[in-house]
Amino acid sequence: MTLPRRTFAIISHPDAGKTTLTEKLLYVGGAIHLAGEVKARGANRRARSDWMKIEQQRGISVTSSVMTFEKDGVFFNLLDTPGHEDFSEDTYRTLTAVDSAVMVIDAARGIEAQTRKLFEVCRLRSVPIITFVNKVDREGRSPFELLDEIADVLALDVSPMNWPIGMGGEFEGIMDLSSGRISRPEGDSRTFQGKQDEVPLSDRFAEEVELAQAGYAEFDGAAYRAGDLTPVYFGSALKDFGPAELIAALAAHAPPPRPQPAEPAPVSPDNGEVTGFVFKVQANMDPQHRDRIAFMRLCSGTFKRGMKLTPTGHGKPIAVHSPILFFAQDREIADEAFPGDIIGIPNHGTLRVGDTLSERADVRFTGLPNFAPEILRRVALKDPTKTKQLRKALDDMAEEGVTQVFYPEIGSNWIIGVVGQLQLDVLLSRLDAEYKVAAALEPAPFDTARWVAGDAAALKELAEQNRSAMAKDRDDNPVFLAKSAWEVGYIAERYPKVRFLATRER
């Protein structure tokens, strides 16, 4: 019998504790055996989701990772996402591949800008969310204030599932509201080591618990799965309060694999034919082997190792001989996989983000867009003999979604486009570390880019009259490069039959 699947992402603003929570979920799930292993160095690094050189140097996540584990008869696919807003494209595409999400909030800061943006992406896709209010062992805002902010800012019903007995210096533990049992901190580090009791609360905390139970919605599984209600757990990932409860909640309440939007019709996980889509491509996860892995979300059917699937990109069936199940840097060959699973497909440029793979090539999954870049730069090689290596590197990273590459109609300087400044640092770091290409970035004469589509004659006239501003992306789609947002509006008024697009579906 196939084990139930739960495919979920963890989303948060930077520094809310997402990486620590990821580690503790893996620890509770039995996927790692040493607390601290996710951040360890050397031989203990196997479970760490932040594997790039720049991630290690800066202590941030800049690419999504996939980790799988089994707990109490449920198979979990955990997708860790970058918290930094400069990598929101990667996060957006990752959220197309999950069925639910855990939203991590800092108890002292509440809802922050990136948290809200990521929540809105989840709302667009009706992804249900469990909220984890982290760091309650430190000084923070009132639980009532935090719950009210979640309800007001995100327009969600909130249902507290447990309650902090004091916060910061007054922290005495976490009460489970359904059972009345309190998990207590122990030892010098004041972590949770398994001690629970039902010692009566002081009047102050008894009143708080009573107000919490009376003042907020009861948990409703259907409302949660519809995206209208979020169950809220208070805890401390660092001190082991909450991760076990989160895993239990995901197993009990999070939805199994859901139908996925596609043309000509949504694809149900019950469909017998194997279908899936590529939401991420990563080159050089193992630099010694110059590998290139496409991450595919399996949407329907039972995948068997060696079967042939047809990508929408070129229509030629490919045999998937070495499909991979991921555990951050560790991998194992997958003999079979089921809807909801994420498998890696080694390839040499045949698979790209947005590709659908299927047995009959009669379906195409939708909803994985490219976003117009907000920063444009020219790439200047320090060693002109490395032009071929630079082209390969830029193509690889464009396929991954790290950057976009534009080839101007006039001039030989390629232009790269990114959403955030930190992506430029990642680009230069990876060019040096993975491709041995030394390059610099120079200001481009343009500020933004728009894909253009519409009437053929109008497009031809636009291109002829604005040759110095025209370019092609790596798929040969026409792109208009503008010096400002005002210029986009001005040119759009002059060419009403041309659409200037800030997003383009892959």
Automatic annotation (TrEMBL):
Cellular localisation: Cytoplasm
Domain of life: Bacteria
Cytoplasm keyword on record: yes
Main subcellular localisation: cytoplasm
Keyword entries, A-Z: Cytoplasm, GTP-binding, Nucleotide-binding, Protein biosynthesis
SUPFAM superfamilies: EF-G C-terminal domain-like, P-loop containing nucleoside triphosphate hydrolases, Translation proteins
Coiled coil: none
Binding residues for GTP: 12-19, 80-84, 134-137
UniProt similarity note: Belongs to the TRAFAC class translation factor GTPase superfamily. Classic translation factor GTPase family. PrfC subfamily.
Protein name per UniProt: Peptide chain release factor 3
Gene label: prfC
